[in-house]
């Protein structure tokens, strides 16, 4: 704000001295259609956790913040803004003496978001979901990245996700962590808190077919179960219903039967084997429609997701300018040029404004209509300075968000550069 306040103080302090030298005061009102250039617009979580943003799908006049109401097949749609040609008014006040004027100018511009569909009036066009790692990896088939991300998640969060899948989408639950049988066998792996799945021999002879790895195979028909077990069984028996064991890596009874010729022995745990197995099933076993459902559940139960509404970028500018009039008896209209410094209060999301320094250049013509009334017309260039970051933008959350406290953030950050050009047509009253 200093770049606005200091010039205003200088102006106020000098007005009295200049008035004694035969100067004049003036006020002006103008209409200023504007053409905006907003570059590299992006928005996401303040900590950089947002992987992609997804637009809302059209659904009448009501916007429902359900995860499946976002278009997961259209990541990072281009967000652009319309020019401002209607609600474009400005006002100014200043002091002139001779060929020099000092003026304070206030302007308002509103650049409405351009619709991504046919109708720019559709409210759904203004709503976006800020998705993070897990949801993004599922819908983009990135198994390895999904496995690595799942391995960092506490087991209790996996349990919460699994229960949501079981309750709301049991058909999907039946496709995850499905235990298997050998090609010549009849028994499926049975989930347990520790793998006890030797095919006999050596120091261990259980042949129980008990597994602690998602989707594992029973190695012998002496154990196991007749019907394949699924995600809910894995969670209740292997993760103990609370995620306290076997996530992200399984455990197994150690034996040396695998050393015997022709014996596989009890399978040994592999680092992050359960996280990798769940990731494979989420990516490989589900239809595209089911993946979008799972992405939404991951957002609502584990990692969180924010919803932001971008209706427009509006800005109120405060500029202090020094203007020079080029007077001549041969001129019917008086040319002038102005250089101004100040700032803009910029609002990206309703309820939060950010101040940025700015400068403005303009050239134009002034024509005297009467002794105290002038008409003027000019063109201008206005540029907002600073780092282009607009933080603490208010967000909303998905319906039935059950993520742990702190996962879903309460603010977002936008980044972009903004400059605009236009014309001013107005009247100036001198006294």
Automatic annotation (TrEMBL):
Signal sequence extent: 1-19
Comp. bias intervals (Basic and acidic residues): 255-266
Region of interest: Disordered: 250-272
UniProt domain Msp4/OMP-like: residue ranges: 22-135, 298-431
Record keywords, A-Z: Signal
Keyword Signal: yes
Name of the featured protein: Surface antigen family protein
